[in-house]
Amino acid sequence: MDPTDKEQPSLGACSCVSDRLKFRSDKILTDEEWLECYNCLKEHVTPNRWKEMMRHLGLREVDIESIFLDHVNFQEARYQMFLLWRIQNGQSASMSKVFHVLDKMELRGCKENVANDLTFNGILVA
């Protein structure tokens, strides 16, 4: 069946929780809140999709490979990639951008799980 077939449910038309959420008063996230965002992402983005997500967020391949050379432990390498993305993007780094990338990667369920966790932890509000 064609994915654009009108009889199939459209993910784009879905009124999902993550589409209705906003960060608290659009304030800049604290380091603690960013750490919570990272922890939610690492729980829901599978290791085999992590590098792809970081590429979509704009991390260069040379930086990704350098981090893997410097940090043999995958958990630490994953954290260092996320940290480098935050540093490189400064105040323009946002979970809205991450959510956009998760949509682009067709990881809508992952996006929903992250949004639900961040809402539960008070970082996002409906």
TrEMBL record:
One of its GO terms (cellular component) is plasma membrane. Coiled coil: none annotated. InterPro entries: DEATH-like_dom_sf, Death_dom, TNFR_25. It holds the Pfam family Death. Residues 49-118 form the Death domain. GO terms for biological process: signal transduction. It comes from the Eukaryota. This is Death domain-containing protein.
